[in-house]
Amino acid sequence: MNLQELSRELSLCLARQVPEGLWGSGVGWSLVLCFGVAYACYYLSSIAKKPELVTCSKSFHHFLQDHCPVVTETYYPTVWCWEGRVQTLLRPLITSRPYVQYRNELIKATDGGQISLDWFDNNDSMCYPDSSTRPTILLLPGLTGSSRESYILHMIQQSKELGYRCVVFNYRGTAGENLLTPRTYCASNTEDLEAVIHHIHSLYSSASFMAAGVSMGGMLLVNYLGKVDTKTPLKAAAVFSAGWNVFDSIDSLEKPVNWLLFNYYLTSCLQSSVIRHQEMFGKLCNINLVLKAKSIREFDKQFTSVIFGYSTVDDYYADASPFRRLETVGIPVLCLNSMDDVFSPSHAIPVEMAKKNPNVALVLTSCGGHIGFLEGLWPRKCTYMDRIFKQFVEAVFEHGSKILNM
Ligand SMILES: *[C@@H]1O[C@H](CO)[C@@H](O)[C@H](O)[C@H]1NC(C)=O
Fold first, then answer.
1. pLDDT digits (tens, 9 = 90+) for 139-163
2. Where is the active site (predicted)?
3. Among 394, 404, 406, which residue's Cα sits nearest to residue 212?
4. What is the model's pTM?
5. Total domains present in the chain
């Protein structure tokens, strides 16, 4: 008997019990039990699944199997909270916020602006007491995010245990620092990221170096990697819940439910950073229209695309879509996406393109939502994404030579 038949059988048994109506005499309990078993069958057959691992490189595949086995294991989403949107909404509320003390550094950008970096030096590292060779991970948060996001704090927690150093790149205007020039950030312009990477590398040129980007941070990272090919000090990169085609992501976020749950809120977060520096932007764009925007697309049309010199918002979205750059990524990159992520619709995941570049591995789960990946009954401490992050960075730093010369 397969699982579907079993659950049908169980619901029939349920139906037979109900008319008796003998709650309290044990029948009620068997009803509950039947429901429980039916749910368990459904969960095990349709929810808990192994992720699909897409890569055309045998050596990358073996490398992941040996050193990052979590990508080949069944992902068991939290039983009471596996649906994509629910995971997306609940993850920031449920997961803990590990305490992290940063050392802030402001660096100068070529346009006269400043970029705020938050360092987690990990000077107590047992494995790497010498700071000049301590492996370093650059972390890129998502849209409107900063070093205070819980997913960033968790990645730092994982890195701390391994003895590594982390640096969080706070996009201009997101970490409370002042803007010195009328410029914020976007997913296509990689100048600030390049400056940050070269700054970190110039400080610790003997330390192994990699980067991990989440959501928009992941898009920015892929856009950078696609431009520089192998001309980067980064050894490898991890990308979580990135949108691959901005047009598809934005269309999905404009569906009424998604607009209500995510789009409207994010738009107001974007606007609040503009309000703080209104005068500075007044000459470049129409602030009234920016503040009237009711969606990310309207905001990008009135603000982001204008600030970064695109003639239309579509030009910006085309340039910001990382699927175009995947072909020329020259270092190993592991990308995790869930098929039920409303920020990154599954039909836009560049599976065929990933099969053409041996540097790329996609890990595709059926559940997990956007930066959700909750697992366990009460998922406070560690998500599936955190475990992939931890195993992958350890794999790269401790065994990386095995994939670097593919
Ligand atoms: C870690 O050590 C370096 C010097 O090796 C120092 O500049 C830095 O401030 C220290 N970080 C913390 C958080 O104490």
1. 999 999 999 999 999 999 999 999 9
2. 215 (charge relay system), 341 (charge relay system), 370 (charge relay system)
3. 394
4. 0.92
5. 3
